[in-house]
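To whoever is on call:

I kicked off a structure prediction for a single chain this morning and the downstream step that reads the tokens threw a length-mismatch warning. I double-checked the sequence; it's 114 residues and nothing unusual in it as far as I can see. Pasting both halves so you can look.
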Amino acid sequence: MAKGNFGERLKRERELREVSMDELTKATRISTRFLEALENEDWKKLPGGVFGHGFVRAIARYLGLNEEALLSEYDSARAEHTPSSSSKPEERIPSPPKWLPLRQLALCCFWCWD
């Protein structure tokens, strides 16, 4: 999906139905700044995860669009602008050796028997 397709489609669908930004804000209870950010694909101004999906679902429902199709477009558009998480491998803290608890138990027993 080329840059701008999701936002342009969303704005076009809203305008075709003659729905103003104010009307959509009142009907969906989504802030105007978030609606504008979606139409402008300004991903930095949008919350991620379930909030973004909830916004897209509510807009699709109100405009009479297919929710799943619009969500798919949203995910594709957002993925193009999200930095890849695979660029840096995850650093894990190594687990302690399995014999360590036995050593601690042995030391505890040694001190108790004195």
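Update from on-call: the warning came from a stale cache, not from the record. Cleared it. Sanity check on the structure: The mean pLDDT is 84.
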